[in-house]
Amino acid sequence: MIALALAGLVLSANPSSSPEKSSTSSTSSTSSSTSSTSAAGATSTVTLQEAGSASTPQGRTFGVGLQLGYPTSVTLKYMLRPDQGIVAGVGGFTGFDYTAGALSLHVDYVWHPNLLTQGDQYAVTWYIGAGGNIIVFGIPTTHIPLGFEYNYYPTNIWLGARVPFGVNVALKQLPFEVYAEAVPQLLVFPGIGFGVGAAIGGRAYF
Question: pTM above 0.85?
Fold first, then answer.
């Protein structure tokens, strides 16, 4: 009788311990799943850092340089804020007519919103801006955008609006930057037309 009673006690004790283990295992499994979901969410989130002073080499404010393309020009850049500034250029050629030489003057307000990437030696930002362009031809000329010819013979002075955007690489160890940009343009005088300029260049900062 005593042996039977002990056997009954052992059997009744085992079921109570089993649900406890199952509950613990279930809790562990739920925790693991939550962690995995959280980790996946963190991986999918990408936030770009504000450019700030990384917009120019060593956070300097005044640069002088040269760019090649349409237009090819000597450029000046002066930063009014760490990520915003004014760019001016004087040179030749234009995004409205690739075949005709011309005196080109432009002034843009540019903004570097975000830092794309950086290393010990460099910082890469992107920028966008808005500005104006004065083009002076030697003689009145025609404009042939995308194969359509427009005659603008009344004057050899053209006025346009510009929207430059591009990528800038500012060096950290040297006061120098290089950039590449595209410049959609709208001709507003003496007629209406559309053009696209593009250039690569560099600037030294002081």
Answer: no
Q: Calculate Rg over the CA atoms of the chain.
A: 33
Cβ atoms 201, 65 nearer than 8 A: yes
Q: For 112-134, give one letter per residue: b (16+ CB within 10 A) or e.
A: bebbeeeeeebbbbbbebebebe
pLDDT digit string, tens, across residues 87-128: 999 999 888 878 778 899 999 999 999 999 999 999 999 999
Integer angstrom CA distances of residue 8 from 11, 14, 15, 21:
5, 10, 12, 21
Answer for the pair 91, 104: CB distance below 8 angstroms, yes or no. yes
Distance of CA 5 to the CA centre of its chain: 80
